[in-house]
From TrEMBL:
Gene3D superfamilies: NAD(P)-binding Rossmann-like Domain. Residues 7-192 form the NAD(P)-binding domain. Pfam families: NAD_binding_10. GO terms for molecular function: oxidoreductase activity, acting on the CH-NH group of donors, NAD or NADP as acceptor. This is Short chain dehydrogenase. It comes from the Bacteria.
């Protein structure tokens, strides 16, 4: 499989790159500085289209800049450029790594809207939720999948185990929602290979 991986040097992206390459997939990494392959301004639709040509999948694992840039306008601009670029290139699939904040903890209640959700993460979580809304509204002609991690994701062990869900937050027997970045990457590459989700959101956790 030929994969364009945008954000291939981040905590999650680097592990997706390693997992995919270990399985023999051809991964073209794209970052702001070109550290893992090619340089890409992700809001540049024509550049996205050029890089996505002949790719079986475009995987996006980016976060807003930590320089005071408002996250919602940034991620919405990114979303529009991605959709336009993937359409123009005729790429096979678009897989976007999003946030956990928009997952439901009860019917109609998102994690980000609960009283204990940390304020420091709220603006970015809401921005990722807006990106999901944009994709759901505007990407009917694109084979997309939005992938939310567990509420807690960090470097750890590759156990080979995970659970899969849809729009609801997955928690363990103690009420915790977590996954290692290694197992999240494993699950995402499994999805790339098995293609179980079309035009919907999925989540992975223990």
């Amino acid at each position: 499989m030929k994969i364009l991986l945008i954000g291939s040097t981040g905590m999650i992206g680097s592990r997706i790159a390693a997992e995919a390459r270990s399985r023999g997939h051809e991964v073209t990494g794209a970052t702001r500085r070109g550290t893992d392959g090619v340089v890409l301004d992700i809001a540049d639709e024509s550049r996205v289209a050029d890089l996505a040509k002949d790719k079986d999948a475009v995987v996006v694992a980016v976060t807003p800049p930590r320089d005071g840039t408002p996250p919602a306008p940034y991620l919405l601009a990114v979303g529009r450029a991605l959709l336009g670029g993937v359409r123009a290139a005729g790429a096979g699939r678009l897989v976007v790594v999003g946030g956990a904040g928009s997952l439901e903890v009860a019917p109609g209640l998102r994690l980000v809207d609960t009283p204990d959700f940390p304020d420091v993460y709220k603006s970015e979580a809401l921005a990722h939720a807006e990106l999901l809304d944009l994709i759901r509204a505007d990407a009917a002609d694109v084979d997309w999948t939005y992938v939310s991690p567990a509420a807690e994701i960090e470097p750890g062990e590759r156990t080979g185990h995970y659970r899969r869900g849809g729009d609801e937050l997955i928690v363990d027997a103690d009420g915790n929602s977590r996954i290692s970045a290694e197992d999240f990457a494993l699950a995402l590459v499994d999805e790339l290979e098995t293609v179980q989700s079309h035009r919907g959101r999925i989540t992975f956790a223990y």
